[in-house]
Amino acid sequence: MITAIVFVQADVARIPEVAEEIAALEGVSEVYSVTGEIDLIALVRVREHDEIATVVADRLNKVPGVLATETHIAFRAYSQHDLEAAFSLGLPDA
User: Domains of the chain, with CATH numbers?
Assistant: First the structure.
């Protein structure tokens, strides 16, 4: 699974609608409204690298109200679950 984090600048008057339309796109797993210089963060999860272009360039960028995007490809994930597994000694409960 390949994960891309997409920063989205959107028309301020349409942020909720833009977020909903992006969230409905195939390949988009989550959309967050955030503070700061960007308006939305979308998580794209696909099987092949070529699919990122399909989701972001061909679909997400064409949602009315999307002004600009910046895409970051994740190469390693660190979650609480992963950290617990990595540091677990595997000892049975006493």
Answer: 2-87 (3.30.70.920)
